[in-house]
Design goal:
Blueprint: E1 5-8, H1 13-25, E2 34-41, H2 57-64, E3 67-72, H3 79-88, E4 92-94, H4 101-114, E5 117-119, H5 127-137, E6 139-145, H6 161-174, E7 185-191, E8 199-207, E9 212-221
Parallel strand pairs: 1-2, 1-4, 2-3, 4-5
Antiparallel strand pairs: 6-7, 6-9, 8-9
């Protein structure tokens, strides 16, 4: 029997990886892969959802040829997930959770509440191996930084082999999590196996001397 699959999607590296793997896992003669990308417009400094470049998820959904369902985080961080699961009625909800017990436990609790299976291909992965795999398969840029050793020059930088090696040095020197699980950096996957074409963006940098983020001024799929 065909399964309906949704992915909690922010456009960042982890959810893009989850989308690509879920499409593979659930694509066969009965299942057509992922049906819907679920994006949540987060509150500032949300502990549950990705904040930067949320506005680009609709473009990526079009490039991935997926339906796109958008919800908004209110006072209760779980309500957008409950609303999505209630409305979309997926059999499977995929997410890019890596090491955050806070995020994983809440996704699992909503899925268990509604009898939905969770699919989290990055959960428990070695963070160094995961970062190298993702940077090889996807073109990823840094959209926000908030960590010792990561200055304004990181904003807009591609996570290529040199950048990955530098992040691993920052792990050793400052304790930066290689996948940014402590909020040290945020990312955007602008190309990869999860979408057709490439997301081209123009941006400005907002930097306060300690932390910063990209402010996208133009975006298109090319």
């Amino acid at each position: 029997m065909s399964k309906k699959v949704a992915v909690l999607f922010s456009g960042g590296k982890d959810s893009s990886y989850a989308l690509a793997r879920a499409d593979e896992e659930y694509s066969d003669e009965d299942d057509g892969g992922v049906d819907t990308l679920v994006s949540v417009k987060a509150r500032e400094a949300s502990m549950m959802y990705h904040v930067p470049t949320f506005e680009l998820t609709s473009l990526i959904a079009d490039a991935a040829e997926k339906e796109h369902a958008v919800y908004e985080e209110g006072d209760n961080a779980l309500e957008p997930l409950r609303e999505a699961v209630t409305q979309l009625e997926p059999d499977v909800l995929a997410a890019g959770a890596v090491a955050s017990e806070y995020q994983m436990s809440r996704v699992e609790s909503v899925c268990e509440e509604f009898g939905v299976k969770t699919y989290t291909p990055l959960w428990g992965a070695n963070p160094e191996d995961a970062l190298r795999e993702i940077s090889h398969e996807f073109e990823v840029i840094v959209t926000a930084v908030a960590a010792d050793g990561m200055d304004e020059r990181w904003l807009g930088r591609e996570l290529d082999r040199e950048a990955v090696d530098e992040i691993l040095r920052l792990r050793d020197d400052y304790g930066v999590h290689p996948m940014g699980e402590g909020g040290e950096f945020e990312t955007l996957a602008v190309a990869g196996s999860h979408m057709n074409g490439r997301l081209h963006i123009e941006y400005e940098k907002d930097w306060d001397g300690v932390r910063g983020s990209l402010r996208v001024t133009e975006a298109e799929i090319v």
